[in-house]
Amino acid sequence: MIVSSGHLDDPRVVELLRLHLAAMHVHSPPGTVHALDLSALKHPDVSFFTAWEGEELLGFGALRRLSDTHGEIKSMRTAPRHVRKGVAASLLRHMIEVARRRGYRRVSLETGSGEAFVSAVALYGKFGFVKGETFGGYVATDFNQFFHLDLQTAGAGGAAS
Predict the structure, then answer these.
(1) How far apart are CA 110 and CA 79, in angstroms?
(2) For a FRET experiment, which of 18, 51, 53, 120 has its CA 20 to 30 Å from that of 93?
């Protein structure tokens, strides 16, 4: 598996993003979807990463700069044919390493609750993310959850040491 930057103009990426956004709207109450669309993913503060096996798209994720010391994991999605193959873990590990190289002290994320989000929350926990307070202008609801990883205390790959 190769993780690389970019590819937002690739039709396979655009289609997987469309699938991601549609799923977020199906599994989230109105007004609670904070996934980035194609134009938002092209913002200069957002770095977009894709995972590939040869010419096959395995998944994507984004890292948004909130400040010089704080980043946010955004819009992660694994292609349906590749779920449970370690794609999301590889993307998350890559984005955490990028955050470290940038000098971020903390990486945060917002996600939903309910059955559709259980696997993602479990993955974040394996990497040492802990549930915490809102950040970055989000408003807490009964649906969303906020997780944070302190990069100063987390071990290599993100997992707490």
Answers:
(1) 21
(2) 18
- Cβ-proximal residues to 90 (8 Å cutoff; 6+ apart), any chain: 1, 3, 51
Ranges of each domain in the chain? 2-158
Predicted TM-score of the model (pTM):
0.88
CA-closest candidate to residue 23, choices 114, 141, 137 = 114
> Which CATH number among 3.40.190.10, 3.30.70.1270, 3.40.225.10, 3.40.630.30 corresponds to the domain 2-158?
3.40.630.30
What are 13-63's pLDDT values in tens digits?
999 998 887 876 667 767 767 677 788 899 999 999 999 999 999 999 999
* Cα(107)–Cα(158) distance, integer angstroms: 10
